[in-house]
Amino acid sequence: MNFNTGNAIVVDHVTKVYRSRHLGRLRLTVGVTDLTFAVREGELFGLLGLNGSGKTTTIKLILGLLFPTHGALSLFGHPLSHREARSLVGYLPEIPSLYRYLTAEEILRLYGELSELPSTVLPRRIDEALALVHLEEHRRRRLQEFSKGMLQRVGIAQALLHDPPLLIFDEPITGLDPLGLKEMRQIIVMLNQRGKTVFFSSHSISEVERICHRVGILVRGRLARILDQAEWSQREGALEALFMDTVQSTVGTATPASR
Amino acid sequence: MTAKALSITRYTVIQLFRNKLFSILGIFGCILLGASLLIASLGGDQQLRVLLDLGLACLEFLALVSGVFAAVTLILEEMEARTIALVLIRPLHRAEYLVGRFLGLLTALLLSMGIMAALHLGLLFFKGWRWDASYLVAVAFSAGKIMVITSLALFLSLFATSSISALTLTFFLWVLGHFSQELKFLANKTGYPAFTALVKAIYYVVPNFAYLNLKDHLEGTGVMGRWLGGAALYAVCYTVACLTLALGLFRRKEF
Predict the structure, then answer these.
(1) What is the average per-residue pLDDT within B89-109?
(2) Nearest CA in chain A to B10
(3) What is the mean pLDDT of residues B74-103?
(4) Interface check B85 vs A, CB under 8 A
(5) Is B189 in the A-facing interface, judged by CB distances under 8 Å?
(6) A207-225 burial, b if ≥16 CB within 10 A, otherwise e?
(7) What is the DSSP string of A101-158?
(8) Contact A232, A239 (CB under 8 A)
(9) What are the sequence ranges of the domains in chain B?
């Protein structure tokens, strides 16, 4: 695989083994095994997999929240240990965990300061981010008063606040109602059209099929296959068939998720 | 201190005051008012003495309880609520986060101790007390002890397997730290070299809170002056050591 310039994310032979101790006995659990792939700049890349296949582990490794047992990762050519790499990413977790005691404006100010936004620019960026997610009227309310949908919007605002070139969404459509689903889809497509690289995980094949340029299929912690849009766009339901084939053919050969 | 660590400090202060820390001020006010009513029957000097000692003891105790609880949950709560992820994915060092959180806690505690001291002084002046500068020294060294114990609690919270075990161990070390001189005495008296070495090791590792007690150092101005500098230096060095150890553990944490 060519890992030269033009890649937003490079995952190079990454393995993650979780170590835990119970009653003095060491337990090793494999999160992902020998993961190798690259996401090109400007691409909309979906990571598909069943529950427990390693999607969240992969995302946490890319964000530097987990450390790889083997292998290396880089963002736009910067190793993850460099601060530059982390200034280029916006992240929306599956359930946005935010400081409930802060107001929407205060939390965006905090994240903006931590993302090195200059104080001359920050107020305007907060206004823009709140306007994008339709929360201008609620900017001075504490997040503990917000509904789940509103918290999701604040989560999107904080991911976009510093205008990062790479956006990583972990299961962004899980638990959304049809209206929220449509809005999230529109936001993802709009961001990609503005030149952002978008990497997201999901187990909704239909959503991935509609919007992604490429899809990676994770099975039991291994990247079983990477598909191009051309491989599924000719026929409705093709991605689902390809996904099922991949899962079924790989399950027999994959290393068990835990030992 | 970086701008990012200062941002974390500022929001930690907001968190602590919006969440729970102000409630201890209410408790302190109630204890003082209740005590002043109870001791109203005592004579003038006795009344002032009891009110002074009781107020200072309450101030330190409430700062200790709220400080240790807040320190133990300072990082653990963020890990459990997963709020830490959206902070650590940004371009900041883990040291900036840890130091920012600790300084936020310390600032909030010092502010609440200052408010409690102001309430206490108000009541003392109302009862006819005459100003004595050693009051400020006593409060300052209570604050020093609180700084040491909260840094230790923070380290233990990252080291221990649960917040309960970290809390228990911190309070145990708080008590043990007040018996440092007894530990030293025990180490010198015992006849077994291995036991002497063990007790001496405990004496040097456990924070020496007895050394930070104002009452034990009031003999003369010369002694007092030397103690002030030494005790302040000791408190700062012990705190920095705890934070350094905490950072060593925090750098390896995964979220």
Answers:
(1) 94
(2) A110
(3) 92
(4) yes
(5) no
(6) bbbebbbbbbbbbbbbbbb
(7) TSBHHHHHHHHHHHTT--TTTHHHHHHHHHHHTT-GGGTTSBGGG--HHHHHHHHHHH
(8) yes
(9) 3-178+213-252
